[in-house]
Specification:
By secondary structure, the chain is an alpha+beta fold. The chain is built from seven helices and eleven strands. The protein starts with 10 loop residues before the first helix and ends in an 8-residue tail after the last helix.
């Protein structure tokens, strides 16, 4: 018997079903969407643009823990009992972000299997990404970590077409995300450019040949 085909996720149809439980907002580059310590009462969906998630320690040190793009969710910790935001989220580019009230998204999860599948896939993907990031930090050189980050930011390996031009992102931010210094990032970026793996064209243009850095001598984990 042929498997029943489920319709693909349609953001506009999904938002229409939520009704009054959501609102759509435009954010300028660097504008804060929510701050660490704010009440956690909603989930957010990126309709357009990119956002940066950062955490600030008690000593005032800031770390970038993720950069998310179009068709991704953030703030889902409120669904697992989180009462306060543990991170700050800001727009990296001009963005369109949908805020989904906690009660509304819980109702949709229960009654809309297509959305439930997408949301579960998002959560699983985020979990896999966290594990991969940990392996990356433990076993890979800073050069490989930078190459992997650039490929992820350009959406290589994700469904759909890659977005090879990454909006302007500072070398300080890249250094924070891979756990190294700005000078090391600068050295590797210049190396990648000379090898033809990246270009600068109003942003960072990433070529698929950068995969050679990531795939070469991948760490093996005994099972």
């Amino acid at each position: 018997m042929a498997a029943k085909h489920r319709p693909s996720f349609d953001p506009k149809a999904f938002l229409a079903k939520i009704g009054d439980g959501h609102d759509v907002n435009k954010y300028r580059k660097d504008q804060i969407i929510f701050s660490q310590g704010d009440p956690a009462d909603a989930v957010f969906y990126v309709q357009k643009g990119k956002v940066k998630i950062t955490v600030i320690s008690a000593q005032g040190k800031e770390a970038v823990i993720a950069i998310l793009g179009t068709d991704e969710f953030f703030g889902e910790g409120c669904l697992a009992g989180q009462t306060q935001r543990i991170a700050t989220v800001a727009a990296m580019t001009d963005s369109v972000i949908t805020r989904l009230e906690k009660a509304a998204i819980i109702q949709v999860i229960h009654r809309e299997p297509t959305f439930s599948e997408k949301f579960i896939a998002h959560l699983l993907g985020r979990s896999i990404r966290v594990e991969a990031d940990l392996v990356d930090q433990l076993f890979n050189s800073s050069e490989k970590r930078l190459a992997r980050l650039l490929l992820l930011l350009a959406n290589f390996g994700k469904e759909g077409q890659p977005e090879p031009v990454i909006p302007k992102i500072s070398q300080e931010t890249l250094a924070e995300m891979i756990g190294t210094t700005r000078s090391r990032v600068s050295f590797f970026m210049n190396k990648f450019r000379k090898l033809g793996f990246i270009d600068y064209n109003g942003g960072i243009e990433v070529h698929s040949s950068l995969l050679n850095i990531v795939l070469h001598d991948q760490p093996e984990i005994n099972t």
